[in-house]
Specification:
The model has no long low-confidence stretch (mean pLDDT 93). The protein contains three helices and twelve strands, in the order ββββββαβββααβββ. It is globular. Strands 1-7-6-10-9-8-12 form a seven-stranded mixed barrel. A two-stranded antiparallel ribbon has the order 3-11. It has a two-stranded antiparallel sheet with strand order 4-5. 36% of the residues are buried. The chain is mainly beta. The termini are far apart. It has a single domain, classed as M1 Pyruvate Kinase, Domain 3 (Beta Barrel). The longest helix is centred in the middle third of the chain and has 11 residues.
Length: 201
């Protein structure tokens, strides 16, 4: 048996974008694009690009802050369907994907936020993204939405729990384009049964 297997799940890219500068005053300033060439460092010009990055609060239990570590957060991948649910919960007519700092938005993969870590998303030219893990909701999208839609951003963290998408990094270089289809590959192994995560915190 192969350790990674292609599935019948295919997703269409409905949005591409990048964040050219760090978040300022908690406001996200992502820009939409139509073509995204990817190197092993991610997308050039994206604030999250790089083969390594300084460690942050997400990994303080593993590394002291600002330790240089492998960058597995080059891209933010979200689901069009999940974002539609979040928008509805917030009373928005639609979600502007720039508000959530998305790199790519995919349509067609159910429960995208809970894809198994190490799943692959592969594009037409072979470009391949490796899923790191769930991207937990943070305050920046809430502040960004609140700025442009007063009264509708404050509930983002609650509404987006379990629907915020995943972070990913580039395993194989190539180019993504709007409308491209990506195929999902997942690890063939069974789920871990070693213990209760909550009890081990």
């Amino acid at each position: 048996m192969q350790p990674l297997v292609p599935t019948s799940h295919k997703a269409r890219i409905v949005w591409l974008g990048y964040q050219p500068v760090p978040v300022e005053r908690l406001v996200i300033t992502s820009q939409p694009i139509e073509v995204m060439p990817l190197s092993f460092a991610g997308f050039a010009g994206e604030v999250h690009a790089g083969e390594t990055r300084p460690s942050c609060s997400r990994v303080l239990k593993q590394h002291p802050r600002d330790t240089e570590i492998r960058n597995v957060r080059q891209l933010c991948v979200v689901s069009a369907e999940e974002m539609a649910e979040v928008a509805a919960d917030l009373g928005l007519e639609r979600m502007d994907y720039a508000w959530v700092g998305a790199s790519l938005v995919l349509e067609g993969i159910p429960d995208l936020t809970h894809l198994p870590p190490s799943s692959r998303l592969q594009g037409p030219d072979g470009v391949t993204l490796v899923v790191d893990m769930e991207n937990l909701p943070c305050q920046e999208p809430a502040v960004t939405i609140e700025k442009v839609r007063p009264g509708q951003g404050k509930g983002f963290k609650t509404a987006a729990m379990g629907k915020r998408g995943v972070t990913a990094w580039v395993e194989r270089e190539g180019t993504l384009r709007l409308g491209d289809e990506m195929v999902l590959h997942v690890p063939a192994q069974r789920g871990w049964q070693g213990g209760n995560n909550a009890a081990e915190k």
